[in-house]
Amino acid sequence: MAELKEYRGHIRNWASLCEELGVDASLAPKEREKAIIIKAYEKWGKEVADHLYGMFAFAIDDNGKLFCVRDQFGTKPFYYYVTKDGRLLYGTYIKSILEGEGFEKKLNPKALQLYMTLTYVAGEETFFEGVKKLMPGHYLEFENGRLTVTRYWTPTFKPDESKSLEDWADEIHNTLKSIMPEVKLPEETAESFLSGGVDSSYVLAMSDAKMTDSCGYDDERFDESPLAKKTADLLGRGNSRCLITPQMYFDAVPYVMKNMEQPLGDASAIVFAIACRETAKHTKLCYSGEGSDEFFGGYNMYRNAERYGDNLKTFYVGNTNIMKEDEKKALLKNYVEGVLPIDLVKHIYEETEGLDPLTKMSDVDIQIWLEGDIYLNVDKMSEAAGLEIRMPLTDRRIFDIASRMPSRFKVNEEQNKVAFRTAAAKVLPEEIAFRKKLGFIVPIRIWMADDNYNSSVRELIFSDTAEKFFNMEEVKKIWDDYKGGNSDLWRKLWTIYTFLVWYREYFE
Fold first, then answer.
1. Model's pTM, two decimal places?
2. Is 37 within 8 Å of 60 (Cβ atoms)?
3. Are 233 and 265 in contact (CB under 8 A)?
């Protein structure tokens, strides 16, 4: 008899699965989903994930054989570790492995070297020696001490030239319209995160959320919250604004790194964590708009794709590329030759051989960046705050459209996410649907230079802890240049700092 040992997520197509599998639809939602997973596994075995829409990671004990699976995009994490005596520790949190019998805690030194470029933990290795991530679209089997990991889903792209821009926009819109009722139950009440961008605005317009949640700053150069308020007003929804101060931001960093379980140098993660904590004070369920940038060509750098051409496979490792190898050699006390970020994505370039440059860039970000940064952040920070986040745009049915859409409908010389914005314009004013992408900006480049706020950063990057890993004269050089006015260096300092905060939380 199969037994569900671990599960986190939300199954969207539960109603049709209940009917197909003979599960009692009147069960409480979580019990119902657990029953669906067991019945689905008993019916479809290793192909179970192919029949589930939503976000999930779970482990099933099938008469002593363990079967673990992670969803196609990696919205929920899953980790595993083999002990010296051949037992498997596993879970959706690293902390459950750290507490397991037979776990030996050691830092994985290679992870830091990759982190210095990427600012997040990419690929299957983690910062804990021996703890691995089950990657998106993979399942794991463990029986009699033997571990096998199999890939069951790969993003594939087959451009369909037969459709017009309006056809693609219609397909996006109709698909999202069919997905939205699955994202929550009629009796549940959800709010919606809202920035100034099209993704969160579109999700809001398609939802029944009455209240929206935004973050803002005193510095209007970085503050998107007035745009969010304008959107909420236009759609007749309420808006709650959380004002984030520098002190609040810096104070939250240790909390974020501890609950993230891995260091994350994405400055917006701190803002997101604060937003989750504030939002959780008045709701337990919230919509968010992640996924469409990577699927539909949302980043401004994607407009350079054609210019990069075949050269992409020599340098493009995803959305962030903070430090080059010569910089890391100078900075790190223990630089290891041959540990290169580009090696993490070589298989993706092999899979996309012959496809256009934008598709290659998107696929790298779908497989590496989304899993390692965006979805990790959403999952860990919402869970820490006691908030459940659901992302309607992250869905195989939405990706299926993107996988067939020619790149010219994603990005052109003037605009990104062309077809997606055209779809959004069906329910949003054009000024919102076609608003220039701002990104989730944080004034950290200014705050960190301000001696009123940066004492925690200064203290740690020049500490004995930092000296274990970094050549201090190189750290000082970056700090002095940054303080001298080269504000572009903030990312390098922030990457060093976030690693050190995380290291203190877990190793000191």
1. 0.96
2. yes
3. no
Burial class (CB in 10 A: 0-12, 13-18, 19+), 477: middle
Q: What is the pLDDT of residues 181-207, one digit of tens each?
A: 999 999 999 999 999 899 999 999 999
Residue recorded with tokens 């498997």? 88
In DSSP terms, which residues pair with 289 in a beta bridge?
none
Supply the DSSP symbol for 226. Answer: H
Q: What tokens appear for 264 in the block?
A: 């994350």
Count Cβ atoms below 10 Å from residue 239 Cβ, excluding itself: 18
Residues contacting 300, CB < 8 A, separation 6+: 416, 437
Asked if 320 contacts 120 with a C-beta cutoff of 8 angstroms, the reply is yes
Among 483, 468, 445, smallest CA distance to 217 is for 445
The answer to whether 23 and 40 are in contact (CB under 8 A) is no
Query: Could you give the C-alpha distances from 35 to 25, 65, 204, in angstroms and in order?
Result: 10, 19, 31
Q: Which long-range contacts (CB under 8 A, 24 or more apart) does 23-28 make?
A: none
Tokens for 341?
């970020």
| Residue 14 host element (H or E) | helix 14-21
- Looking up tokens 């990005």, which residue turns up? 411
357-387 pLDDT per residue, tens = 999 999 999 999 999 999 999 999 999 999 9
The answer for residues whose C-beta is within 8 angstroms of residue 115's C-beta and 6 or more apart is: 121, 127, 263, 265, 495, 499
What is the side-by-side strand order in the sheet with 54-62? Answer: 2-11, 54-62, 65-70, 138-143, 146-151
Contacts of 414 (CB under 8 A, 6+ apart): none
- List the structure tokens of 9: 């997520």
For residue 259, the surrounding DSSP H or E stretch is: helix 246-260
Residue 362: how many CA atoms within 13 Å on its side-chain side? 30
Question: Do the strands 132-133 and 65-70 form a parallel or antiparallel pair, or are they unpaired?
Answer: unpaired
| Pairwise CA distance, residues 309 & 292, whole Å | 23
